[in-house]
Amino acid sequence: MRHPDTRLARPVAPGTSRRGTGLGEVRVTGGFWASRLETNASATLGHCQEWMERLGWIANFDRVAAGTTAGHVRPGWQFSDSEVYKLLEALAWEHGRTGDVTVNATFEALAARVVAAQDADGYVNTCYGHAGQAPRYSDLSAGHELYCTGHLLQAAVARIRTTAGPADPLVAAAVRAAEHVCREFGPGAREALCGHPEIEVGLAELGRALGEPRYTAQAALFVERRGHGTLAPVALLGPQYFQDDVPVRDAGVWRGHAVRALYLAAAAVDVAVDTGDDELLAAVERQWTRSVERRTHLTGGMGSRHQDEGFGDDWELPADRAYCETCAGVASVMVSWRLLLATDDVRYADLIERTLYNVVAASPRADGRAFFYANPLQQRTPGADLLPDDVNPRAEGGVRAPWFDVSCCPTNVARTLASWPAYTATVDGDTVTLAQYAPGDLDVRLDDGGTLGLRVTTRYPTSGHVRVQITSAPDRPVTLRLRVPHWAGGASVTAPRAAGAGQGDPRPARPGWAAVRRTFTPGDVVTLDLPTAPRLTWPDPRIDALRGTVAVERGPLVLCLESHDLPGGTDLADVRLDPSPAPRAHGDGATVRARIAPPPAAPEGTPPFGSGPPGPAPDDTADLTLIPYHRWAERGPAVMRVFVPTP
Amino acid sequence: MRHPDTRLARPVAPGTSRRGTGLGEVRVTGGFWASRLETNASATLGHCQEWMERLGWIANFDRVAAGTTAGHVRPGWQFSDSEVYKLLEALAWEHGRTGDVTVNATFEALAARVVAAQDADGYVNTCYGHAGQAPRYSDLSAGHELYCTGHLLQAAVARIRTTAGPADPLVAAAVRAAEHVCREFGPGAREALCGHPEIEVGLAELGRALGEPRYTAQAALFVERRGHGTLAPVALLGPQYFQDDVPVRDAGVWRGHAVRALYLAAAAVDVAVDTGDDELLAAVERQWTRSVERRTHLTGGMGSRHQDEGFGDDWELPADRAYCETCAGVASVMVSWRLLLATDDVRYADLIERTLYNVVAASPRADGRAFFYANPLQQRTPGADLLPDDVNPRAEGGVRAPWFDVSCCPTNVARTLASWPAYTATVDGDTVTLAQYAPGDLDVRLDDGGTLGLRVTTRYPTSGHVRVQITSAPDRPVTLRLRVPHWAGGASVTAPRAAGAGQGDPRPARPGWAAVRRTFTPGDVVTLDLPTAPRLTWPDPRIDALRGTVAVERGPLVLCLESHDLPGGTDLADVRLDPSPAPRAHGDGATVRARIAPPPAAPEGTPPFGSGPPGPAPDDTADLTLIPYHRWAERGPAVMRVFVPTP
């Protein structure tokens, strides 16, 4: 393989003409995301490592390396290795993004402990296959061995693209692991698959990173093997749980465990793109369409059922029991990003933005040391405060937890934030497309030579004014495209006239891509104005759980009403949102007119069903403040709702 | 102990003055319940036994008896013994109710196989404690050993009261088992408890049946031990799951796994009544009140969460994901019946009726050979037809299943229907109170001598006219009370005037107990007229999941709209119920005026949230028929809803 160009390091690199920006092409310098990337670097990465040291999840590798697994009760679930791999991936991106040598040293030390645990034939797993453990691949439905390997491969991909390539010990270990998987599960070998998709994206991307088509072929094999009901059931869950009910290319909608469904969909796009399988790509697009139309929450969150961490039926979108696992948000971004690269359809970028602001950014606490696992849109009882050293046994509750018994989300947030700049823009020929907005500098290599330098200045998402100054450009026409989100009716773009003729007049820009093609001169400015006044958002009447309610959004932010902002003594259950006066901007949230209903009077012990229809709108009004959903529960335990009943 | 009077055989027999009718005092001769009791006898009992033979759950006892457990993979969950015991209990009541000698022979043959598996010290369980099995009581949180024993004790209670008393082999085995439990878990022994309450009701009732206060004391010990967080967690579920979070006497509401919460509450009433513990009784009444006010579905169903089969938060009453386990319905009847006997409060009888008609009767298919486990109030996608020999791996879905992987419900329905007449009426001194209405003959022994004979004639619940003819009465004043349900505003009672003076005029009867005290003469007639015109029922506005909807009830029956009754091509999601014309009676259901809304138009791939408020009421109207909820899905897979949106 060629030595990688670390400027272009990015998680997803299909061999198509459209590509995402590399970490070295984008520098986020301020605003919403810069602070989160900084907190991720300064707090979350270390936090994750400390917890996994404390719980022995990293020492599990040392024990395998030392051959002392026998007679030892291994801490952690069978998939805890994957958290170590996701942390390694996050560290690799972070090192690639900043060049921080301390981060690199941390990576190398941790990677060495993983590599030491690898068996001679390439198998690496701390839960199976060693003295006192169940045999390798003895529980493919629930054992998560290939899932873990997939995350190891993704960590190696990050390392290859940000540093030295295959000479790196972790990369070499990943190659041995991938070869082992191909031997064990390749054509003519064991015709089996893992209960939790993930090996597929790992193999596909490692194949891209190393130019090794056998890995892509193995990923394709795993994708095609799923959907034929061959996985043994797990507990009382049917084959739909792990998408083993219908083959990917035949399915019409996402169903079952959301993270599994989405990791699988991401892999299907990878395979479709790499093999030119348009039917498979169309299948994932069809599933995305139907799932976004009927099975996706306002926040972009996916998954409505706690029972199987899964999608529910069409229109089953309960605010209170919305699961919206943080990892499903990460996985949804993975799918939509791949589809955006494959199709250039703006709707994928829109969903990425919605999900990043309202699921991924909602998970970590401001200090980066506690997380939401589930992200419901309504909380009826305030969560109990967790102590700093409490592991949350449950994946739910109204308080962010430092760590979980199943702790997939913190490291998933960490790797996503560490690679965030790679999702900022796409490049195709001489066209650069800004998909997300954050203050910063881009220096993008155009595919046909030269670079386009951009300085983005904005207070997005609170303000919708985005100023893009050209800092360098080739001496020929190039195209700059700016995303006009679907919610931004009334947007406008201002671009320079022909060279030297000054700034043009604002022209309306419909949702979609607003393109400006010019021979740009450094100093030229393109501005985008997106209306970010708070707006009312009404649910489709087929969503039973949200009937009679309205939400407030502002730009890409979903807002919520939290009990901290209620007048003393008011129960959130008694608040009605009066939609007749338009909500007004207030800080980064909004102020609305509310009406406070007295709770219905009923004799004691009476069921909550009566002969009278709902009463008239209450007279008692109050102005209430809504805050961005991603910031809820930052002021201590609270009750909260995104959708508020109307009078 | 005294030889029992089998005429008075009944499941719950506290030593208080108020008692329930014995199976020998009531003969149900027709109508809604008679057909169900008959189907239970002719189909369900045999069906349950066939399935448990086929799956090897009964053979598990043979294997223990033969000492051949080693090296054998035991079929069934760890609690499958309890299904055999519940079937035995059902057979015992059925024999008591009808005197059918074939049923008795079936009981004796099955009981013999259970008794043969008992260890010398009284322990009996086919999953623990024998060669190749985990040790006894090695997993109290999830092992269900004491739970199983509790059901064995309840079967023995049924046997004692319907036949010969302690000389019966199963009764003798139960006594040995109870003594074993008292030795192992009594004062000074192991201070532990079972994750699933049930041993408590079993011990308390066996104590009553045998006059053995040590069993009651042991039940009280178990009740008091719960709520102190001593049970090891099961999977990711916290102590609330098995009510180990708060002591029973301190709790304000039911929470966690619904069946566990309700079996425990039933036991707490037993203990409170037998020990004169008014504080404990008040605690359960308080929990009932709060739970019925805020955590109970319109059908009487309890449990809103699939994840832990549990109660949710206050106001968390989703129609689509309502769990409303059939067993929780049975357990709710158990609790309310005990509270009714303890307090004479009519609201307990009201909830029993609601639950019997809309949960317990909804579970079995008309032929008694398939069952609902969960009883949601909305089904969005038609269930797939199950083959007659399919075990349903899941406790949900829109089609009744012949059997379940966890098959607690069929035998629970069976034992409840077999003892149904015992819940018909209460007796206290010279007062006889009809709590439920069914055509039949009662011959009730008055506590202070003599009997009151009643012939009930009615087409209840379709008609609200109930005629009670006195067939025998002592020559002194006695009181006959009739229940006027809470929904029956405008009811009236007609009673005979003084002897020989003919029938009196109808007088209004408010919800509660309508009492008639007379020196009755055979031939006297008391009539009750309950309005059973279909009525609209509106949910409390704090129930988010039901906002903007209305339901239709008729007498004690909750009605539902099923897709079979929609015009061709109409999607149930597009139906609105126009509440302005009153619903009209139609068969045993109702006809309503509906408006059919066209589905909202939205661009493909758009999230189901928009900038426009709900549109005006659709013009397209149709008359639609609603059927009793208990009969839904009898015409093949269907979509269904109880609460229908209003225009």
UniProtKB/TrEMBL annotation, chains A, B:
Residues 25-420 form the Non-reducing end beta-L-arabinofuranosidase-like GH127 catalytic domain. Residues 1-22, 582-623 are annotated as: Disordered. GO terms for molecular function: hydrolase activity. Residues 597-617 have a biased composition (Pro residues). Residues 432-531 form the Non-reducing end beta-L-arabinofuranosidase-like GH127 middle domain. InterPro entries: 6-hairpin_glycosidase_sf, Beta-AFase-like, Beta-AFase-like_GH127_C, Beta-AFase-like_GH127_cat, Beta-AFase-like_GH127_middle. Residues 535-645 form the Non-reducing end beta-L-arabinofuranosidase-like GH127 C-terminal domain. Keywords: Hydrolase. This is Glycoside hydrolase family 127 protein. The lineage of its organism: Bacteria, Bacillati, Actinomycetota, Actinomycetes, Micrococcales.
